[in-house]
Amino acid sequence: MDRLRQLSPAQRQYLLITANYWAFTLTDGALRMLVVLYFHRLGYGALAIAMLFLFYEFFGVVTNLVGGWLGARIGLNRTMNLGMGMQILALGMLLVPVAWLTVPWVMAAQALSGIAKDLNKMSAKSAIKTLVPQEAGQAGLFKYVALLTGSKNALKGVGFFIGGALLTLADFRGAVFILLLMLALVWLDSLKGLNRELGKAKNKPKFKDIFSKSRAVNILSAARLCLFAARDVWFVVALPVYLASQFGWDHWQVGGFLASWIIGYGLVQTLAPRLMGSTPGRGSALLWAGLLALLPAAIAFGLQDQAHQSLWLLGGLLLFGLVFAVNSSLHSFLIVSYAKEDGVSLDVGFYYMANAMGRLLGTVLSGWIFQVYGLAACLLLSSALLLLTTAISLFLPREHGVQV
């Protein structure tokens, strides 16, 4: 407690934002796994399950675009707390009797959850720019961004495990109630503790300013769209359904394995500054995206080996997670580095709009391509999208911290 009092106000705000982000991420990861596994158990096909997340991802696109403008006008504390409150409401919508859990109802709850998640994430990522002291430099900024991003994804993996475990132990409604109660306790603390002026722009932006005028931000956003579409086109729906249907894994095994993958992925993200050895720029983005593009195609080729299919898939997935984590971490640093100091949430919001659009594209394609053509086709499409990510990255600026 004494050490906490010795921290500066900015450091205390960073810890509070991180705790808020962690709690939200746990419930978000758990809820995603709950929905996928529960509706698979009810007999829904891969495409139908993907459609449950359609509004989740679509409203993430809209939320990031408008949320960045909103955060700059009313403050990041309000957008973060608003996101927490909306997630609690979304969880409450899933506590209805089982007969009410129709596809339209669950899609509506997921839409609300998608808005909540991206308000929370945009607020947390934007706040870092305002809280990290300028004397820390680009290297210090990279370290703080990597720590927040990596810890968030590790906890999302824990959420995957919690979701699978709760579905087995408490069934669907019991699991959702536990998540709602946990998040409500954190939300009450957040309402009291966050700085009311956090992230407010000195010059109030107009609504037309939601679209970024920065060439660097626009190029990075296009690369991010392709990067996350490449991940989700095989990871979100196709992979868990494949593990359950082809390998015969139960909820514990699917949730546990994907949780371990996400946790490892998050830990690698926190270590990205050490793995690279220098502050990343265009060269790093090209190198790591190009390396990642080779992996899904190699896994697709390995799936033809029926005798060692599980080895190719699971081993390839672990390697993909390591390289993808570095890509994601360096992108997360670059957007905070490129973003304007005043009204930082505008640029960050636009960038995460592209991120959400990539997830939306990947989620829909994951269900459709897997159902029609199988997992190998999803993997080959992933490689094609990663090659496009590499090509777009050629146009990134050479220097760090470019705000043009």
Number of strands: 0
State the helicity in percent bands. Answer: over 70%
Shape label:
globular
Which band does the percent of strand residues land in?
under 5%
> Helix count?
14
Element-by-element helix/strand order? HHHHHHHHHHHHHH
**Averaged pLDDT:** 82
Low-confidence stretches: none
The Rg value, from CA coordinates, equals 20 Å
**Helix/strand class:** mainly alpha
C-alpha termini separation = 43 Å
Main sheet specs? none
Overview of this protein structure:
With 404 residues, this protein is mostly helical. The chain has 14 helices and no strands. It is globular.
Topology:
Layout: H1 2-6, H2 9-41, H3 46-52, H4 54-74, H5 76-93, H6 103-131, H7 137-193, H8 215-235, H9 238-245, H10 251-276, H11 282-302, H12 309-338, H13 344-373, H14 375-393
Helix pairs in contact: 2-3, 2-5, 2-6, 2-7, 3-13, 4-5, 4-6, 4-13, 5-6, 5-7, 6-13, 7-10, 7-12, 8-12, 8-13, 8-14, 10-12, 11-12, 11-14, 13-14
Key phrases:
404 residues
Q: What is the gist of this entry?
A:
With 404 residues, this protein is mainly α. Helix content is 80%, strand content 0%.
